[in-house]
Design goal:
Among the domains are: 33-46 and 196-333, no CATH class; 87-176, OB fold (Dihydrolipoamide Acetyltransferase, E2P) (Beta Barrel), CATH 2.40.50. By secondary structure, the chain is an alpha+beta fold. The radius of gyration is 23 Å and the shape is globular. The chain has a six-stranded antiparallel barrel with strand order 1-4-3-2-5-6. It has a six-stranded mixed β-sheet with strand order 8-10-11-12-13-14. A two-stranded parallel ribbon has the order 7-9. It contains 14 helices and 14 strands. Helix 1 crosses helix 7 (238-247), helix 1 packs parallel to helix 14 (407-416) and helix 3 crosses helix 12 (307-331).
Length: 446
Amino acid sequence: MTAMRELQKYRVVLNATETIRNIRGKRRTLPRTSALTATRPIKSLLQLKDTLDVPVMIERPGEETAHNSRAVHHMIENPGIGSIRNLLTLTQPSGKEVAFKVGSIIKAQVIDINDKGDAVLRLAAAGDKGNLQGTVIRAYSEVPLTRGQNIFLEILGGKSNITMRFIGTSDGASETVRQNVPVKILDMLAQLSTTRAGNADFQELFNMLKSLPQGIKTAIPEFNSLEQLLLDIKQLDGKLLKAFVETSGIAFETRLKIAMLGDPGSVFQNLVALQTEGDLKALLLRLRSLLKDRNVLNSLKQTGHNISEVSGMVEKFIKNIELFQLTSKFNDMFYTFLPVLWDDLKDGEFLFRKNREQGKESYTCDINLDLESLGKLSISVTILDKYFFITFYTERHEVNELIKSQKHVLEGRFASQGMPLKAINFNHKKSIPFGQANDQGVDVTI
């Protein structure tokens, strides 16, 4: 791996800080407000009324100038739910082999439990496409459970013993459920947690769009617009990152509500402008509707495309967006994927969140990357009292040293932009799970 490629990773960090500043300055574009929801019976996340409040605004921090090191140490809050002792450890599966995806939410029923905490659970919703439903597992529980309870668990990982965090029950209100998230949202999250799309999935979608004849794209411009949102790029910059964040579909309902809340005479123009700017979820929803039209289906059949495959792919990416929307609500942050086709990138995501500690407000962007050549790495960029704090997390020690050797380049980039960089830290992690904010805090020792 050359130093030039490492410079590219540093540019991602700097561009992310520019994205934070741009989003904070665009109050009209992405305000912190509830998403617009439909009034029909709940059938999808788009139709959750008064429950899907995706935080999409990172407001300007206060003007306090005093630096509080203790606040910095605790500013990065773990979005996981419940205390560290709310754990269950898988001890013995029964029947089929059990394989869980780290970060997924599963639902289970307590069949039996003894005074020592040995529990027998039957999985109600788990595994890819629910293929583990009905599987019986044994686990040691640090949480008081009772027979017949229906519980939600988050998979934290582990090799010999899989560790799970207790989230709550569907039998009633639970103090462990963050912000008293309704059970129906937990249930949806359990169903959607296996639908997350990676870079290979985006490449498959891009290839499908490229294979469509130009005549089809002309007749159905949504295909062409979707292709333009999935650009094959060689290098990211601040403007591209900002555009990706705003058009990823995670804030679609919020942007739609903003367009509708304007002056009555300008609502139509606002909606047209929103469509012109493009939004991944809006395009996918329109395509899902169009793929039910007989004329569209006949046109696609004539080109030799499998209709069920095209429809399935569109539905898959709608669910992927809904997963990120629901996770944003669940963890009180703005969580989005990186819908780009970038050499060496297997997966990428952004987590934006606002924290408050002892009267201090901080704003953090976590950038998680899974690279073919470097493995997984996570970069936390935090702004507090107008100062920037950056922490790199890598799974491989040699990657940590390689990034550290280019530290001066990042410092120079910040200085050239007039952005005060207070500290850069480097840490090693055995595992970097996606969908979780970094919880180790920031070391301000310089």
